[in-house]
From TrEMBL:
Coiled coil: none
Name of the featured protein: Helix-turn-helix transcriptional regulator
InterPro entries on file: Cro/C1-type_HTH, Lambda_DNA-bd_dom_sf
Domain of life (superkingdom): Bacteria
Lineage: Bacteria, Bacillati, Bacillota, Bacilli, Bacillales
Residue span, HTH cro/C1-type domain: 6-60
Keywords associated with the record: DNA-binding
Annotated SUPFAM superfamilies: lambda repressor-like DNA-binding domains
Amino acid sequence: MFSDRLRHLRKLRGLSQESLGKIVNTTKATISNYENEYSSPSNSMLVDLAKALNTTTDYLLGNVDSYERIKEKDFDPLVEINKLIKEYGITDSGFFDIDKWKAMGPEEIAQLENYFQFLSEQAKKKNLDK
């Protein structure tokens, strides 16, 4: 059950095994092992995976049937932005105005992720054209 739910949510969130691995500080192979039931995560890794996938450990473990998104009061935009920065390999974050970023909600973070994904795809196309 864990492996299926992990794979489902990873894909639902638009993450590759490699990008999820980066978010939780592990490898693509480790995520693959979890999804193929070759190994199980430690308790701390389970918590990290749940946070990265915006769900609960109870959902991943099969204790509840619907995944819950992080409640607005628990949402930390800076944590979410830092995940995106790591996932998309953005190294120069000096242009960020932290006070403005703190005011973002889940919808704005989703828009920011879409923008990062767009920029990443444009960079890939540009490199292919060369």
